[in-house]
Amino acid sequence: MQHPRIAGRYAKSLIDLATEQGALETVYADMKFLQSLCAASNEFVNILRSPVIKGDKKQQIIAAVTTNKIGKLTTAFNTLLINKGRESDLPEIVNAFIDQYNAIQGIHKVTLTTAVELSETMKKSITDKVSAAANLSQVELHTKVNDALIGGFILEFNNNLVDASILRDLNDIKKTFSQNLYIHNIR
């Protein structure tokens, strides 16, 4: 992250303006779109961060990519960022906006890593159980697949980590066997 404090301030300003204009949900949807765009396209992020490409050219590129996909307020915000020379911070601002929006709405991000892809019913069941067990009002579940886990899961939320994977169990056994406590008694 290049400038987390700046990203937080711009995100807070955008949230305040969107709330004032009654367009918070629309801007949130726009930010989700921009977040997926930045995650999917390294070229787009590299263009934003390039000191060689002029601001007006960046404005044209952003307009071409986001035409009919984001609202007027978000478009005006992107223009402001370019005019202030902060377009390179757009990915961080988008993430800060989504984090602040989730905090306002009481949405908790939960990341679940499993060895295999889960069905929608299983995801719903896990979301309900995590919500009830941790006393969370709203849960946004993000899933990852890591076949190295062999089985089980890793659950991350609110700076907590629950590792119930077979990989961790095997590593614990390996660590236990690598520390032979009885070898000095043989001599």
UniProtKB/TrEMBL annotation:
Keywords: ATP synthesis, Cell membrane, CF(1), Hydrogen ion transport, Ion transport, Membrane, Transport. Its main location: membrane. The keyword Cell membrane applies. Coiled coil: none annotated. It is found in: Cell membrane; Membrane. GO terms for molecular function: proton-transporting ATP synthase activity, rotational mechanism. One of its GO terms (cellular component) is plasma membrane. F(1)F(0) ATP synthase produces ATP from ADP in the presence of a proton or sodium gradient. F-type ATPases consist of two structural domains, F(1) containing the extramembraneous catalytic core and F(0) containing the membrane proton channel, linked together by a central stalk and a peripheral stalk. During catalysis, ATP synthesis in the catalytic domain of F(1) is coupled via a rotary mechanism of the central stalk subunits to proton translocation. This protein is part of the stalk that links CF(0) to CF(1). It either transmits conformational changes from CF(0) to CF(1) or is implicated in proton conduction. PANTHER family: ATP SYNTHASE DELTA CHAIN. This is ATP synthase subunit delta. It comes from Limnovirga soli. The lineage of its organism: Bacteria, Pseudomonadati, Bacteroidota, Chitinophagia, Chitinophagales.
